[in-house]
Amino acid sequence: MREIRDPIHGFITIDDTLEPFLNLAVMHRARRIKQTALTYLVYPGANHTRFEHLLGCMHIARRLSEQLIPMQSVRDIVRIAALLHDIGHGPLSHVSEQLFEQYTDPSIRQELTDDIHEEITATLIRYDEEISKLVGKYQDQVIELILKAKRRTVEHDIINGPFDADKLDYLLRDSYYSGVKYGVFDLERIIRSVVRLQSGPESYMGIEEDGFWAVEQLVLAKRYMTLQVYRHRIRLITDAMYVRAVQYAIDEGIKEIRELYSFVPTKEYVKRYLYWDDESVFRTILEKSSGVAKGYINRLRSRNLLKEVYSKNIKGFTDAPIRNRISKLTFSDSKNAEREIAHILDRHLNPKKIDPAFVIIYLLTIDNPTYRPPSIEIKINDILIHYKNGKVDSADNYPDSIIGSADEDKQNFIYVYAEMDGIDEGNRMKVKQAIDSEITEVFANI
Fold first, then answer.
1. What is the pLDDT of residues 236-271, one digit of tens each?
2. Which of 50, 176, 223, 347 is the most buried (most CB within 10 A)?
3. Are 101 and 69 in contact (CB under 8 A)?
């Protein structure tokens, strides 16, 4: 048994059951994947990785299971699931989810029940020989806790529930490393207030009434972090640039990148997948691309970012068919519109010319999985409060709470980013105002 120092939780205990897992190839790979993608280009401290987050999740899962689960063998399964739950994340974490959705064969995609990174996690646990050997007879139970459940259980709630160990760790961790206070909430109060609830064949991780306000704090923290960190305007630009770099790399015929993002639940895929992390993707594109993909990666490396030249809530388009077409826009559909927008910019920036390849239409929408933003919703109506009088009800019905109004923002936005090198901020703002109606017209005719 040993202890690891952690800036969020103090000392994290690693016992003999878990210590061998720390030397798995998938865990070393997790050290090479940034937890919050390219957020460090906005908040320089945000260089933390999936590895620290996995340790934190395991630590919180241990504490929750000690409160809620009497059998040590079941607690061990929960801790193993927490430690492994994110090993399937692609390069730059959630940003890759968009690309997996785009390039995985539809016949495979329609068979999947979960986000692809979770399906990759399950595939790794099934087919990676190192993991299989350590997980042993618990393999199926660990996978069941990580994937969506047909029926809720306390064990599943700890790993994949409305206020699970994942959320309880990543909000505090991302807030700390980003240097902001938006993600702070009373973790100790939540852990001390969790309660096992039973309803027929289902069991739940609920919260005692006295702990409700800490849960409200958690929900508000998630909203603030989403608005100020996860969807920071520069973070969105870097996400869009990475996605576009990969799309062009695949268009240019870089086979390795195509294979990475074409998920297949096989042992052969698992063997290839372990190679890929943030740096290996960047390096491969730089070595093998001679075109636009390389240009995007070089821009990200030197923080020479595109600039926002247009933004609009999709609800602002009054014609429903236009809204529907925009929300389903694909990479190939975008190219014609991006050429038109480049010509509009040319007219306003004369004699400067804009390369259409460095114009990006980016959708932040819940309807289009190719452009789904990297965030995890806290489903407030799934959080159960155990009142002092014995009643159980969902958190959104708690009196005097503002928790319902803090639910996830469902608005859909469309942005346009473009290369504006050499144009100062004042002139960029003038151009942005001048071209607004022209770009709106482009989208109206898409």
1. 999 999 999 999 999 999 999 999 999 999 999 999
2. 50
3. no
The per-residue pLDDT for range 295-344, each reduced to its tens digit, is 999 999 999 999 999 999 998 898 899 988 888 888 888 999 999 999 99
Q: What are phi and psi of 183, to 5 degrees?
A: -95, 10
The answer to whether 146 and 159 are in contact (CB under 8 A) is: yes
CA distances from 155 to 82, 88, 445 (A): 11, 20, 51
> What is the strand order of the sheet 202-208 is part of?
194-199, 202-208, 384-386, 392-394
In the structure, how many helices (H) and strands (E) does the chain have? Answer: 20, 9
Q: In angstroms, rounded to a whole number, what is the distance separating the alpha carbons of residues 428 and 250?
A: 32
Q: Strands (DSSP E) along 270-324, which ranges?
A: 307-313
How far, in Å, CA of 297 to CA of 279, rounded?
A: 11
Rounded CA separation 206/386 (Å) = 7
For 307, the enclosing helix (H) or strand (E) is: strand 307-313
- 77, 85, 120, 260, 262 from 113: Cα distances, Å: 22, 16, 12, 20, 17
Alpha carbon distance 118, 216 (integer Å): 27
- Sequence letter at residue 235: R
> Could you read off the pLDDT of 7-26 as tens digits, one per residue?
999 999 999 999 999 999 99
**What percent of the chain is helix, strand and coil (3-state, nearest 5)?**
60, 10, 30
Find out whether 416 and 310 touch, Cβ atoms under 8 Å: yes
How large is the C-alpha radius of gyration of the chain? 23
Token reading at 103: 């390039």
Q: Supply the pLDDT for residue 411.
A: 67
CB-facing half-sphere around the CA of 52: CA atoms within 13 A:
24
